Amino acid sequence: MYASTDFVKKHKTPLILVLLSVILYWCFAYNLIRTEYLKLLFLYTSLFIAFYGILKQLKTNITCLGYLAFGFRAVFILAIPNLSQDFYRFLWDGRLILEGINPYLNTVSFYIEQGFSPVAQTEALREGMGALNASHYTNYPPINQLCFVISSIFTSKSIIGSVFVMRLLIIAADFGTLYFGKKLLQGLNMPVHAIFWYVLNPFIIIELTGNLHFEGVMIFFLVWSMYLLHLKKWQWAAVVLALSISVKLIPLIFLPLFFQWFVKKETPFKGLKQLIAFYCITLGTTLLLFLPFYNSEFINNYSQTVALWFQNFEFNASIYYIARSIGYTFRGYNEIATIGKVTPVLVVLFVFLISFFRKNSRFTALTTAMLLALSFYYFTTTTVHPWYVATLLILSVFTRYRYPLVWSYMIIFSYLAYINLNKADKSENLWVIALEYSVVYGVFFWELFIKKSRTELHLE
């Protein structure tokens, strides 16, 4: 009895923070409507303060932090996502495949217009995902589709049942990331507790476990691949990287960055052969995974959907909104079609520049290059959904940069972007977005230039 009393006294602060976090997560999962902006901001801010306190108090107790990460996720286990409706489309695609129908060939609206209900709860899923999502072809790669199928195998007629299974998959992926992330940090002689800036982060728990975004599965394969690459097992790293790409296409942006990792000055020809083999394994495996869905219409439909992200959709952008404003000033209309074509070219040029003209031969330098490349893409793209920041956050764990950690808090303001005095006005509130990016860019440039120069001066 006395021992338990002493334990409580000794760990009073972390216990209070943990209990508070459980209550806040429960409120977030079961007692929050997306349009309750002040409540959303209060809960999210409070969770971040508690998260920082817990990590500061318990950073040496890795086992305890792991249990807490699982416990906080368990709070969401029976909750329907309240900040995103994408999961309805996940269920639709998974159920279509179980019916033997290729999900890439037709839009949801096509079936509705034909008066055909190919899956259980057709109307509920269509209403849940919304008209915009239903009018476009699916853009989720094959391993992502496999996750949708698994969720539908066990509960093909229950939305909450399918949500439960998907949530288990995402939680399992997060703990895979924890496992390989810890081993990679140990191999790099970096603080192991740094992985909890990702795993225990409220942003990750809410956006991935809570809102069912499969970036968590992509990140699991990405970290596993990075770990294998660090062990010099590059053939297996290539296979696992292909699995990551087959969940979300975003890791494709990293491929040029591996040039210096393989091609060394001492053995350029051997390194070049390995690099080519690495690319062939990665891209070959990815294509094989897409092969079961191949159809004469597949490439057209899929490329059409991907192009929408560059030339049609606008959300929570930064540099693009400045370019759009300039276009309005001189041309009088939105030039997203033109800007959307230029942006990918700029991203490709930037990636190739840092691939060949920046030293990326060391592992930490490689992960930093990956972080900078993806940051440049998100800084210039037309659409930045909150869950996109998850990949930046995990990459930052293996670098000296922490601006993605700051962004993982500030990204909540993207949900507040539609606060307008005029309720008929559906446009984003640019002042809210300006606040978000002012902080993010401020920390980014401080770390990139001021903090870096001070560190170098101190070392001298």
Approximately what portion of the residues adopt beta-strand conformation?
Answer: under 5%
- In terms of structural class, how would the helical and strand content be classed? mainly alpha
Poorly predicted tracts of residues: 455-460
Amount of helix: 55-70%
Sketch the major β-sheet.
none
Secondary structure: number of strands: 0
What general form does the structure show? globular
Separation, N- and C-terminal Cα atoms = 56 Å
Care to give the gist of this entry?
69% of the residues lie in helices and 0% in strands.
Can you describe this structure?
The structure is a single chain. The protein has helices at residues 2-10, 12-30, 37-58, 62-74, 86-98, 108-113, 122-129, 131-134, 142-154, 159-187, 196-199, 202-210, 215-230, 234-245, 259-262, 268-290, 298-311, 319-331, 336-357, 363-380, 389-397, 403-410, 430-459. With 460 residues, it is an all-alpha fold. Helix 5 (86-98) packs antiparallel against helix 7 (122-129). The radius of gyration is 23 Å and the shape is globular. The N and C termini lie far apart (56 Å).
Topology:
Elements: H1 2-10, H2 12-30, H3 37-58, H4 62-74, H5 86-98, H6 108-113, H7 122-129, H8 131-134, H9 142-154, H10 159-187, H11 196-199, H12 202-210, H13 215-230, H14 234-245, H15 259-262, H16 268-290, H17 298-311, H18 319-331, H19 336-357, H20 363-380, H21 389-397, H22 403-410, H23 430-459
List keywords for this structure.
460 residues; mainly alpha; 23 helices; disordered C terminus
